Amino acid sequence: MDIKNATFVISNTNVNKCPQEQLPEYAFIGRSNVGKSSLINMLTNNKNLAKTSNKPGKTQLINHFIINKTWFLVDLPGYGYAKVSKKARSKFQDIIYDYFSKRLQLVCTFVLIDSRHRPQKIDLEFMQFLGEHSIPFCIIFTKTDKLSKTQIQKNITIYKKEMLQYWETMPTYFTSSSVTCSGKNDILNFINKVNNDLNTK
Fold first, then answer.
1. Domain carrying residue 142
2. Does the model's pTM come out above 0.70?
3. Looking at the predicted structure, is the pLDDT value of residue 81 above 80?
């Protein structure tokens, strides 16, 4: 898939105000500082589309971008650590829960995981939440440019072992780097295939 057009549509905290078009929607979410905004900018060929910051917790709204006028990319608030008040963190969780419980257009969620770290409890719990609510998801291991290929595979093997304690099979996963653009084609081709499958139904 070649992204020729990526346009910001709306930011809000109210799921009912999200776009009403019946277009497939792909959500991107992860712990704060996992490299979500950089990944979105890399995928869309627009370094200024999603706001990046050195401070964790920059994304605090549901952000909709329409891609090639045929599907929505949704940038969701990060979960986990962010330098904000407890009240603000609670609000993030409410926004996230409402989005996943009410947004019927959602086709797939991409859960971003920092490839440098061992499995984190909060990531595993979040994916468990998605599973319990029958929300399809894939994993994207980010920041792979900071590791050797051997270390990447070692870390993913550890992650698989942890996941298979709770899941029958390992969810579909991708490895990526916003610096080298690795994984870009695999992720976009996956989205394109899902969209094509939806169109043939």
1. 6-199
2. yes
3. no
